[in-house]
Amino acid sequence: MSQINISNLSFSYEGSAEPVFENVSFHLDTNWKLGLLGRNGKGKTTLLKLFLGKYSYTGSIQASVSFDYFPFELSERQRKKTADEILQEIFPEHEFWKICREMDLLQMDVALLYRPFETLSGGEQARIMLAALFAQEGHFLLIDEPTSHLDTAAREAVRTYLQGKKGFILVSHDRQILDGCVDHILALERNRIVVEKGNFSSWWENKSRNDSYEREQNEKLKKEIGRLTEAAKRTTVWADRSEARKIGFDLDREQHRSFESRAYIGEKSRKMQQRRKNLERRQNSAIEDKEKLLKNIEEPVDLKLLPLKHHKEVYVRAEELCLGYNGKKIIGPLSFEIKRGERVVLQGKNGSGKSSIIKAILQKNSEDLSASGRSLNKDKEGENTGIQILSGSLEAAAGLKISYISQDTSWMKGSLDDFAAKNSADPSLLRTILRQLDFPREQFAAPIETYSEGQKKKLLTAGSLLCQAHLYIWDEPLNYIDVFSRIQIENLILKYQPAMLLAEHDETFIKRCSVRRICL
User: Fold this and answer.
1) Is the pTM of this model over 0.85?
2) How many angstroms separate the Cα of 345 from the Cα of each of 91, 142, 325?
3) How many CA atoms lie within 13 A of 124 on its CB side?
4) Burial class (CB in 10 A: 0-12, 13-18, 19+), 77
5) How far apart are CA 141 and CA 146, in angstroms?
6) How far apart are CA 209 and CA 220, in angstroms?
């Protein structure tokens, strides 16, 4: 057991108006299973890269362990090799039996090591990387969003695997994963960094309790400041009157006074002035105490959605539907309906056909498609990828307007105004919704291709929210989006109850928002 000590750490990107970290100090134990939380753009990945020595900084990071980062980078040349060849190249001192042991814990077949890495699914690639890193003993792992794009079964395998490990920092926005495999939380809040024992739920409960206490204190101080302000005004009037009477008097009008009473009046005036100063000091002190509150409270703004209502109750109907590419069946037969006001979730392993079902519905309705900004029938190289209905039927209500969020963000580039124009969105409203999702203003002028994955997802979400539609089809919309924004989106869906078809693996989100699941 050893410590990782961070002292007076400061870092900012060149040209940035605000520092990412400023005089930050905290310490971590290398035996902890640590969950790293924070808004998109708050500095989670930056902190991991500072641990790795990727950037120059001021202050100190002291550790007696070596750091390893997940996912490790692979060149195009390496990705064409087998996983076994890659591991021999990157970790020449690795022991094969340890890799096999870790893969067994991850419920994987060792034979996968001898397949070209690029032919493996995203989940298989991620788990092989985890197995290789945990096989290196004595290292502290920096694990950056390992479950993005993983299906439910693969997420559960990773969660179970990490439960039995220690000595890592896990960046994740999946609340179920965080509850299942961490014992400490490192939270990058608005104006401080919090290190706390427990999992996500215990941290959230403590944060909610602290936020509630601060709001109560804030209200009490507001009332106290108002009361003191009124008292100070009255005391000022009294003090000014006493001061005026002390200076002199008119014998004709104030015959009851004598020159001997001047000392008494002077003392009374002095006490009134002192009382005024005391009230002002208390008032200023209360204002200072109030300013210390609410600094770290997340105040998610309620998002708005204006779904259209179609005259038909059933928006989409599939009966004994079989889908395929180039005449080869990939899924079916399948029957389902999506009705007005229903939130239906597609669930299944990676490659089970979730995106294919979505593409088939979108192709059926492509003339009304909004918010994706790309062709449905072509991939990013321009090749035709149109999906075919091999048998059965798929019907969409006539005139159905669909708003779509793609899971793929690789096509996103250009300026924010370009995106707004392509999606017929008002640029000002688009920026307003992005700010409500805690999108930094300085990013508005940056090219979209420089955005983080979380920021790209927020931009797609904002574009979809601006589109009035009968049916909202979102394909893995929550990948890389922070917990606070996820809760905002959940609350939006529960409030407006639009008709939705979702492909999503966040179990907490599914339980809150869906009314039905289609399991493939």
Assistant:
1) no
2) 41, 32, 23
3) 19
4) exposed
5) 12
6) 17
* Confidence (pLDDT) at 395: 92
What b/e sequence results for 397-408 when a residue is b if at least 16 CB atoms lie within 10 Å of its CB, and e otherwise?
Answer: beebbbbbbbbe
Residues 6+ apart with CB under 8 A from 433: 303, 462, 465, 466
Q: Is the dihedral of CA 124, 130, 132, 135 positive or negative?
A: negative
Do strands 184-188 and 168-171 pair parallel, antiparallel, or not at all (unpaired)? Answer: unpaired
In this structure, what token pair is assigned to residue 326?
């180039």
Each residue's pLDDT tens digit, 208-267: 898 888 888 878 877 777 776 776 676 666 666 665 655 555 445 555 555 455 555 566
d(CA 321, CA 333): 5
Q: In this predicted structure, what is the pLDDT of residue 225?
A: 72
Q: Can you give the pLDDT at residue 214?
A: 82
User: Which tokens in the block code for residue 51?
Assistant: 């641990």
Bridge-based pairing state of the strands 33-38 and 184-188: parallel
Q: What strands, in cross-sheet order, belong to the sheet with 314-325? A: 328-339, 314-325, 388-396
262/43 Cα distance (integer angstroms): 67
- Check residues 265 and 492 and name the one with the higher pLDDT: 492
Rounded distance between C-alpha atoms, residue 427 and residue 411, angstroms: 20
- 91, 136 Cβ separation under 8 angstroms: yes
pLDDT at 120 over 70: yes
246 Cβ contact list (under 8 Å, min separation 6): 262, 265, 266, 269
Beta strand spans in 116-272 (E): 139-144, 168-171, 184-188, 193-197
Instruction: Give the β-pairing of 388-396 and 369-370.
Output: unpaired
pLDDT tens by residue, 71-91: 988 898 999 999 999 999 998
